[in-house]
Automatic annotation (TrEMBL):
Domain Cupin type-1 per the UniProt entry, residue ranges: 67-215
Keyword Disulfide bond among record annotations: yes
Amino acids binding oxalate: N102, N112, H117, E122
Record organism: Carya illinoinensis (Pecan)
One Pfam family recorded for the sequence: Cupin_1
Family: Belongs to the germin family.
N-terminal signal peptide: 1-27
Lineage start: Eukaryota, Viridiplantae, Streptophyta, Embryophyta, Tracheophyta
Protein name stated in the entry: Germin-like protein
Length: 223
């Protein structure tokens, strides 16, 4: 019987280790290693996937409760909607916990304009009213449905989506995210109100319109 050479055995061992390394990294515990880490947003201007923890001795019961989503949002704006965030910036106890929530109020005919959340999947429930909810996949397929109170929706992470109030009265949605700070890329502001602004010739070519159309749209979002 032929015995494998030492070099072949070593090579096989290296290959096995290389194959197992990804599995070892996936098995690492991604959860917090402490009960809580209430964000101390005044401690440092630097944050890496979160904020420094407030000393446990300074944490109080009030840190774990937030009433921001109980307040009706002001919908007197160009979109007729208002997003109230319950994320780590407004509710520091969410730091490191990987969750957050939003309240979205809609005036009749109001729209939460096309946007995406780069760091989270969104799940929402209609509390009041009648909403058209839609999103577009990376394959350019549009999915939508009209929802009423008690019905839920889910928007996969990073996909462009919107909600529009198609009822006769006000509407309200409560949305949850699997990120303490999901972020929001709101397309009208991103494309037409960035600082500095995207060059007009880029937008005219992208949307196949004349420059005066781009300038007209930009003027609607100028401060």
């Amino acid at each position: 019987m032929k015995i494998a050479s030492s070099s072949h055995v070593h090579m096989l061992s290296y290959l096995v280790v290389l194959l197992l390394l990804p599995l070892l990294s996936f098995s690492a515990d991604p959860d917090p290693l402490q009960d809580f880490c209430v964000a101390d947003q005044s401690a440092s201007s630097i944050s890496v996937n979160g904020f420094p923890c407030k000393p446990a001795s300074e944490v109080t019961s009030d840190d774990f409760f937030f009433d921001g989503l109980s307040k009706v949002g002001d919908t007197s704006n160009i979109f007729g909607s208002n997003v109230t965030g319950g994320n780590v910036l407004t509710f520091p106890a969410l730091n490191t916990l990987g969750i957050s929530m939003n309240r979205v109020d809609f005036a009749p005919g109001g729209v939460n304009p096309p946007h995406s959340h780069p760091r989270a999947t969104e799940s929402g429930v209609v509390i009041e009213g009648k909403l058209l909810v839609g999103f577009v996949t990376t394959g350019n397929v549009y999915h939508s449905k009209v929802l009423t109170a008690g019905q839920m929706f889910v928007i996969p992470r990073g996909l462009v989506h919107f909600q529009k109030n198609v009822g006769v009265g006000k509407a309200l949605v409560i949305a949850a995210f699997n990120s303490q700070l999901p972020g929001a890329v709101v397309l009208p502001f991103t494309l037409f109100a960035s600082t500095p602004s995207i060059p007009d010739d880029v937008l005219t070519r992208a949307f196949q319109v004349e420059e005066k159309v781009v300038e007209s749209i930009k003027s609607k979002f100028s401060s």
